[in-house]
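protien #1 (seq + structre)
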Amino acid sequence: MEMDVADHFQVVGKRAASLMDENWRLVAILRENKMFFPDTDTFIEVGDRLVVVGQPDSFKALCTHLECGIPHFPLGYGPDLLLALLPGSNSEELIKETMHLAQNTKAKSLTILCSKEEGEIQEALETWTQTTDIKVATVEGNVEDSLEKMGSQENYGVMVVHPFEASFFVSLAKPTLISLAHSISCPLLVARQSYPYERILVPFNATNKAELALGVAVDLAHQFGAEVAVAVVEEPEFIRGVEEEEWTESVSKRVRELAHIHKYDFEVIIKKGNPVKEIVALAKDFNLMVLGSTTREKGLFSPHVGEHMAQDVPCSVLIVAN
């Protein structure tokens, strides 16, 4: 069995001896892309990938021991939500979707960031203040200028924004939503009012960030009672550089392994063609897409696939970049 250590696991900071049992044994740790074999005095750190050998029926007991089955999103990033009301956004609808997230997870409070010109939103908040601690933070000038600074604070578990694009010349330099997601310390939710989150889509290519996104999707599914579908898109061989069948089988195998690790039955959807077009078409049948982003950069003349997915899908998108 393999599992990544989250910051809420009770074994964080403890010695590897705590994972030596008659039914299972920690045999290796992958840390910062280097694998080593721990001794009993090795301390376990957040982000470690643990390789555990055990009896076939020991996963549930081990998971309970690690507390890996306890939903921790967004608490794993921070206990509070941050909603940024950008120019042109529908304040009332954004607040409704953000509260849907807050009330179905264990988020403790909500901060609404807006300009002084848009600070009169009390009517939209009155129906929610009884159930959630809400505060309004106003800024001088453009709200966009405060997003990176506010989103980097450790107490926020999710930043919520409405879909927005940079100007044409700025967008040539960097992908707008993906760049913001990489510059803050929590996931970014691009809200399109497609709640309730009953069906969740995860584009998957077996990268570390895709696996992280899948873990977040499963966590949310447990809290919302939702279904999760994993989408694998085969690109032409001349683009990927390896045979489609070989790559697809490798990725599908990893999905099966993760289904076993998470003890969750995913719907697996395999498509062929342009990843953006295929994912956008699939997303019409889903309420939320959880997208793992590996890089914030793009080539001078090449599109950023993740940015196009985030901008073009009709449902809300949760971008996981950290």
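ok now protien #2
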Amino acid sequence: MNKVSIALGSILAGLVPGLALAHTGIGHAAGFAQGFAHPPVGLDHVLAMVLVGVLAFQMGGRARWLLPAGFLAAMAAGGLAGMAGLALPLVEAGIALSVVVLGLAVATRLRPPTVLALGLVGLFAVFHGHAHGAEMLAEGGAAAYAAGFLLATALLHGAGLALGAVVGRAGTMALRGAGAAAAVAGVAILAGLI
């Protein structure tokens, strides 16, 4: 096993204890700090958001800014729907599936047309946003809470872009392996194993 794989595995293992805190239920969060803290506490959110950045890096060109920006816009829409109490079926399954699909896209170095990738990333972002928005307290602070989870998400996308650049220099096999490992984690999340 190379040093990059060990480092990535260690980071992922360190995130596992926070899994139980990822989705605490409707109406438990308010304010910027809690909004900012929501994405990083769930392995499902972290993996998907970092993978968006890695995929954007792999696709190159306009995709490097379009995929993260599209994810943020669709996530904001999903967050508004969640805050408004609008029902969205299979939110947790959609989030887990995002990890599987994005992981496989990175593992296979998939380069779909940018518009197709943007549509898929946007669809998944609605599920992530809905989960964040549904956590919002009804009393208020929605703008600050949304700003927090959007900023945290943007930083995770940036981490994915940086990971793509740094690990990509070590060779594509390391990135492909990380994508495959993320896809396996997504299957485990979908199955309720983690």
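The radius of gyration is 16 Å.
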